[in-house]
Amino acid sequence: MAVIEREMTIAEAADRVSSWLPGHRVEILRGSIIVSPPPDEPHQGTVFEVGYEIRRAGAKEAGLKVRPGIGLWLPTGPADYAIPDLSVVDADIADALVRKNCYAPHVFRMVLEVTSSNWADDTAIKPELYAEAGIPVYLVADRRHEVVLLYQDPAEGKYPDPVRYKRGEIVPLPESVGVTLDLPVDTLLDGDD
Length: 193
Known about the structure:
Elements: H1 10-20, E1 25-29, E2 32-36, H2 41-56, E3 64-68, E4 71-73, E5 81-82, E6 86-90, E7 97-99, E8 102-103, E9 108-114, H3 119-133, E10 137-142, E11 147-152, E12 163-166, E13 170-172, E14 182-184, H4 185-190
Parallel strand pairs: 4-8, 9-10
Antiparallel strand pairs: 1-2, 3-6, 4-5, 6-9, 7-8, 10-11, 11-12, 13-14
């Protein structure tokens, strides 16, 4: 009897890694598997607090949903997807399902990443990927450097240089998000303490 072997696709490999590491976030960025450890408590405090404040600012009434950890299908490779820490999406997101529980980028208004041990992915790779996907607003809480970066209005697959905010300052969400809200940098960096 002959045994036929075949190579595993990158998507199959990512699924396998995900099954081996419960609680870890597995993404495919530019054809590479990226694995992030489970987030710490301040990270999750930021995600919860920002999501709560966006909902309080009228997200639902504006036809938006606030979702932590949902898949964003990326146009940068045949199997590329990211899982932002928090997303503000159009209410009809279910109609934009691509596959593998990932959704087309056109329904995303904003994504938030809170840096962890893999901070370089959030500050170097993801700005390029999210700009190429046409995500209107990308907010990065860079805990390692104690700064918040606001990327917005990508043109021709690139964001202009980000606006940088330091501790003690306020980040106004751009109008394109769909709600009016000012977020304190300290909350973005420290969570809800």
